[in-house]
Inverse folding.
């Protein structure tokens, strides 16, 4: 695996940092997640990781984190600017003992600036990036894309990319470095084309009135007779011609190409005449850029995804989750099927033993609640 032998310490957080850590684990890194005491088991991005519970408010807990990082390649921390420094676990301290450490800081607003210590969520970071203003239908308010764009794309994924860059550079210099990954800049970066293409014909109108934001009839979702939806992305002329032909319409009947609203009504009414399954059979294998809108339960068993093995069985019985991406020809990401994400504190003793703590030392750490173990409940 591509990251086999890499040692990663992940300070537990929500969404973006766990996703970044999961990417590392999926591609072979050994990831130890440092959980806080009394943390509920709500992390659904823990596959392939181990969990140790430490009270970092206590000096002994912080000392264990220092020991973990002294032998680590990467640290992922999701706290607001200055929090790690207050605990004596900032880059200055940890990289003094381990100058090869890649210290990845993943925050909302970054390590500096007026908002650096302000709370926020995906919707706030996306708003400040400028991109939220583009999302939504006309005559409606901006619509957040759940928390995909800032938390996961601009946050966890961009941070993982930064770690890869830093690791490559370290292979030449032998030195670690600090990564300031934040979701405002990360989201904005994923939207670089939106900024640089504002002079193109695809934009120029208000929200929800342009080619790619639900304004155009050829880039839209349409309801079918059974209340399901089809996604249409027939931008190029040859694909558009296929769309109109397979709908059983003609260019003359549809009307003028520039009259998006009028044409949308005609196509909308046509899609309402058949079920999603019927339309899928018509468009499957055709170059019309039309596909069914699938649910999270349907996507894993769709013939294309199933053939490629794009989804893998989840630890939740009867469910699936996406497999590692992208696919590498020699060292692909691998997930051991059937393994559950770690319970909070499941590997506390195991990790402490690896760090050289004796049984007596570990007993004392557990007694004084510097470290904790969470044991699986018995099912009687």
């Amino acid at each position: 695996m591509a990251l086999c032998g890499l040692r990663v310490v992940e300070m537990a957080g929500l969404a973006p940092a766990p996703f970044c850590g999961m990417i590392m684990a999926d591609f072979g890194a050994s990831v130890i997640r440092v959980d806080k005491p009394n943390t509920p088991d709500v992390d659904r991005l823990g596959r392939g990781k181990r969990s140790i519970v430490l009270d970092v408010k206590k000096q002994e807990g912080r000392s264990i984190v220092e020991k973990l990082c002294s032998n680590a390649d990467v640290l992922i921390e999701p706290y607001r600017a200055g929090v790690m420094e207050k605990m004596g676990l900032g880059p200055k301290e940890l990289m003094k003992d381990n100058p090869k450490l890649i210290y990845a800081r993943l925050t909302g607003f970054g390590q500096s600036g007026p908002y650096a210590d302000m709370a926020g969520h995906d919707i706030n970071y996306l708003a400040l990036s400028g991109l939220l203003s583009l999302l939504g239908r006309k005559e409606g308010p901006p619509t957040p894309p759940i928390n995909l764009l800032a938390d996961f794309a601009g946050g966890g994924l961009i941070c993982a990319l930064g770690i890869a860059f830093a690791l490559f550079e370290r292979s030449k210099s032998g030195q670690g470095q600090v990564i300031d990954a934040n979701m405002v800049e990360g989201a904005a970066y994923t939207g670089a084309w939106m900024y640089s293409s504002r002079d193109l014909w695809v934009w120029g109108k208000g929200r929800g009135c342009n080619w790619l934001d639900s304004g155009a009839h050829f880039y839209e979702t349409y309801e079918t007779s059974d209340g399901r939806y089809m996604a249409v992305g027939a931008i190029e002329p040859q694909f558009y011609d296929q769309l109109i032909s397979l709908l059983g319409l003609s260019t003359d009947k549809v009307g003028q190409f520039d009259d998006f609203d009028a044409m949308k009504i005609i196509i909308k009414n046509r899609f309402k005449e058949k079920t999603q399954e019927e339309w899928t059979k018509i468009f499957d294998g055709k170059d019309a850029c039309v596909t069914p809108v699938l649910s999270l339960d349907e996507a894993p068993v769709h013939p294309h995804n199933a053939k490629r093995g794009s989804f893998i069985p989840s630890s939740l019985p009867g469910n699936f989750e996406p497999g590692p991406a992208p696919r590498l020809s020699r060292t692909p990401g691998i997930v051991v099927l059937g393994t559950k994400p770690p319970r909070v504190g499941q590997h506390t003793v195991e990790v402490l033993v690896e760090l050289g703590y004796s049984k007596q030392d570990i007993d004392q750490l557990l007694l004084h609640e510097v470290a904790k173990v969470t044991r699986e409940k018995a099912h009687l």
Remarks:
- Residues 148-173 form the longest helix (26 residues).
- The mean pLDDT is 94.
- DSSP finds 15 helices and twelve strands in the chain.
